From TrEMBL:
SUPFAM superfamilies: Thioesterase/thiol ester dehydrase-isomerase. InterPro entries: FlK, FlK-like_dom, HotDog_dom_sf. Residues 16-120 form the Fluoroacetyl-CoA-specific thioesterase-like domain. The active site is at T36, E44, H70. It comes from the Bacteria. This is Fluoroacetyl-CoA-specific thioesterase-like domain-containing protein. Pfam families: FlK (PF22636).
Amino acid sequence: MRPIPDGFTQTLTLMVTDEMTVDFGELGAVHPVYATYWMAKHFEEAGRKIILPFLEDGEGGIGSQVEVIHTGPALPGMTVTVTATFTGQAGRRIHASMRAVTELGDEIGHGSTTQAVLPQTRIDANFEALRARWASRGVGESNP
């Protein structure tokens, strides 16, 4: 992994859709606003954008931690920008702070992510080992 400059930032801009509102499936729709679990996904995606320009050939990244503090609502149709800022590296773990802001300028969330950078062959081998364990139980054979 090439060094990431202090304060390096990346952004992810998205429009909140009806699909991104709070709906717990079995429990049904709860609130017609941007769901915390979607914010977590977008934080992880923005955190991944931090590492991509610095990966060496043969390296891959995998999310290992997401912290989300959801502080305000966003309605379907609103634009949200997630800003990821590199905050440090500990071995192969890359840490970034996150901030989500609506087009109105309201901060609606903040938090952090951690991505682990590993050889892609190791990541792939771990997934294959898990598939083999699952298949040995007679499940998942039809899932590639």
